[in-house]
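ok trying again, last paste got cut off:
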Amino acid sequence: MPLFEHEQPNITLDEDLVRQARLLTSNLSNTVENLLREFVTREHGLRAAQDAAMTQVIDGFNSYHTQHGLLSDEFSNL
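nice, full thing came through this time. structure:
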């Protein structure tokens, strides 16, 4: 049994780009898989950083609201 399961996805790539890439690597599938892995890892990191930044903003707003309330609170008719 292989160490990793591999899927054969249906993707469309520019023929000229694939031709050029084949001149630069002896294993195009492995190269694309490694690049895709790097992309996924980088995107997970970026999204985690964005989530952390948004959480920090929300926590700051909530802290301010707890301490000072909102200007609109004094005008609410509810």
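cool. The chain has two helices and no strands. The chain has a mean pLDDT of 91.
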